[in-house]
Amino acid sequence: MSQICYRNEYKHEISQKNQVILTSRLRKFLKHDENSVGNSYSIRSLYFDTIYDEAYWDKEDGRSYREKFRIRYYNNDCSFIRLEKKVKDGAVGYKQSARITKETAEQLIQKNYACLADASHPLLQEFYAKCKSQCMEPKVIITYEREAFAYAPGNTRITLDFDMHASTQVSSFFHDGRIGIREPGIDCVLEVKFDNYLPLWIQNLVQTEETTSTSHSKYVIGRHLNQI
């Protein structure tokens, strides 16, 4: 399993105007990350939760420690799919991942978790055990566009996520094109992630008129859009 690395993460909901200003500014000083095709790329995730929606309620109730499981792929490329576990612990968090095939993902969508019974990767073993013991099941698909920038010092990453859609039709996870309901009222979410420190010039670079941080959760919003 990948080494656990706790990271800081700050989120701001920003307007389309400030999105345009920020992207223009960031493109002058930072390089896009390795996933970028042109300026941005698409992300599609399928989130899992227990039959009691424990991950959902952990977030809604403001619990300090939370974890979510999802499968994800980029730019409609089904040759690279990952199962991910994202953990939030107070003000910091970490993410772990394991590669899976499209065939395995399709089995998980159908709740045929036995396909992971003999998995060797520790994260796949953990997911299998929790699916069996906690009755995990796929809940909602989240699709959105991302423009991302990276800076090596501090392992700094800046992302702008926009055009988010959500759908509970989990069988459509591998369908092409936008699916589901568009997130209303929010043009873009700015996220700044780093390990131990954020370079001062990066702090200055991402300043906008909208300085209120948010606990924006794509999973929770996706559930709301589809009436839980």
Automatic annotation (TrEMBL):
GO BP: polyphosphate biosynthetic process
Domain annotation VTC: ranges: 7-223
Protein name: VTC domain-containing protein
Organism: Trichococcus ilyis
